[in-house]
Amino acid sequence: MADANEFRLPQVGLQTPEHEELLNIIDTLRSQGISRYVDLPQLIVCGDQSSGKSSVLEAISGLRFPTKDNLCTRFATELILRRSPSPNVTVTIIPGQDRSEASAKTLSAFKSPSTSIDEFAKIVNAAEKAMGLDIVTKVFSKDILRVELSGPNQPHLTLVDLPGIFWAGDQSQSDDDAALVRSLVESYMKKARSIILAVVSAKSDLAMQVITKLAREIDPHGDRTLGVITKPDLLFAGSDSENTFVKLAKNENIVFKLGWHVLKNRDYDTRETTREQRDAAEKKFFQGRVWSSALSQTHLGVENLRPRLSRVLLAQILVELPGLVRDVDNELQSCKDRLNALGGPRRTSSEQRLYLLRTSHTFVNLLKPAVDGTYVDAFFGSPDTAEGYSKRLRAVVQFTMKEFAEKMSLEGHALQIVDSKPAGQTNKDGPPVMLRDNYLEQVTLQMRRNHGRELPGLFNPSMVGDLFFDQAKPWPSIVKETAEKLVAAARATINLVLDRSADTVTKDGIMRYIIRPNMEPICDRMNAKVEEILKPHIRGHPLTFNHYFTENLQKKRQEEVRKSMALKMRQFLTVPFGGVDPSTSNGGYITQGVSADRLLKALVPDESEPDMEKFASIEATHAMEAYYKVALKSIIDSFGMYAVEACLLEELPEIFRPEIVFELDDETITKIAGESAESIMEREDLQKKLKILEDTMLTLRRLKTFTGSAETSGSA
């Protein structure tokens, strides 16, 4: 019966020519070495030591794996099963990435001592010897044994058998070996395109088998895990243990969306039986026990497991194909970009100069759009990432200048002068708050100490400048801080552009001999321009020809008159005088019976202001505030136009222009672009990678031609 918790796979037909081609193409990709760079869809067989993994592989393939000392589980084994008229086995070794070049070459040239299926144990032992495995010096290896097995009864299937997980070492395997095996198994399980075949033994307590815990940690929703229960014949019929594993097989305990499968493998007494005898004994066992009534027949026995695994693998390939093509294409483009950055071999000064000229051309062609804000090139990537944003220098500058303008408006003044201050109000983030009356007292005191020959009620013209310079004291620190941010942003963009334009060693030389020497004058000119822009706002005499100043000054005076008249109106139009309260809803309209002469006399009193110093202080403060607004707009625009644009951004693409390369002598050219051993090795590795990726793309194009027909066949 079907399990309600089990995920329904796409109904994909098996063993059609199209599907055989699909599986063959994926195996071709794997043999080309693409797995080093891009994960491929695959079935990985993992479990604890002695869980019966080798017996599962034997049941699926018919191969008799060597059982002495569990030698076959000392390394990962790729088992490729294919249908063909005659049986044959081919064994190769894929060297691990920790192998030296000489050792890897030797392992890649491994020749199998036999191609007979009956001598498979002899073949495996020879491979183990080639890997240098023994019980004393080396127990496990990161090399991969690739076994291609064909025959008339083989399913179309590929599996990767991994060493069994164990917790503690003994005489034949150490604690370090345990950590190595676990790390190897987890690395395969974490590959998102891998289907996990989690093998558990009914002989052992389920809670003691770590593979189910690992599977749930790495694949928490069970989307790509299929469980296999082995050794059910070792459970007593009707026992609690048998009921526990039946419940597990029904997907009611540990839930995997791909479900569970149960196998009965050979035991010690039946180890010499044939494949046919083994399969017949398995059928007989399930028919006589609770398994056949509790589970669907499709979840029992190896005859049902083979097509089930083929279906799972095929469905995974079809699902992952678009992402696989995308990943390979991305890796291919990245590899080409890196090779372009490295350039061709450059042994002579002419080759080195030519490389630098090409690097300069790439640099200018990327930095100029970064400055101009045209982010069309693939180099700029996504703006959602920190790196992609840093490459967009114009965007960084625009945002930084916006922040600068806001900070100057909110924090540029030394004091915030207010007419009234509610009790308890504080301004923790901004400038200190001061009442206008208190500020006017300070201005009056300052005017007394700076009094010249001006008449009473007038103020020394220098007072406006003194008040303004005090109020604008935060400006230099804000402007210089912003300038430093913009220079840092420019350096970050240049660094990223150079990463794309040159290899690491040459990049260091370009930075040392070209970029830094040319950036220093740019920074010096920018800093000098900043000082020039700040100078009239720090000392000297205020100067402006902008009518905005007089407009602001008049507005300030009008505000004072308006406040004074409003106060007198409120005093005059109170109820005792026969008027109405201005706070009422009718807006404080004058009622009949109010004398216009009395109102005029109230608004324009005959008496004059006796405190001439206060009058002068008010006028000086108004002039300072009006000038401050004009100067604020001026410095924000001037800093952006003359310091940022003219001195920094316009100069950046020129710091590594081709003319500079032409002017360098041969000795400097060699210091910069002379090729290091690391660059030579990197180019060789990239060329190998490029060949693999290009072959992979050709193969994937073939795969695309079969995808449509495969899907059509599957839905038929």
UniProtKB/TrEMBL annotation:
This protein's record includes keyword Phosphoprotein: no
Protein species of origin: Vermiconidia calcicola
GO biological process, one term: peroxisome fission
Keywords recorded for this protein, A-Z: Coiled coil, GTP-binding, Nucleotide-binding
Example of a GO MF term: microtubule binding
InterPro entries: Dynamin, Dynamin_GTPase, Dynamin_N, Dynamin_stalk, G_DYNAMIN_dom, GED_dom, P-loop_NTPase
Domain of life: Eukaryota
Database matches in Gene3D superfamilies: P-loop containing nucleotide triphosphate hydrolases
UniProt GO cellular component terms: membrane; microtubule; mitochondrion
Residue span(s) of domain GED: 617-708
Domain Dynamin-type G: 37-322
The protein's name in its UniProt record: Interferon-induced GTP-binding protein Mx
Residues in coiled coil: 676-703
SMART domains cross-referenced by the UniProt entry: DYNc
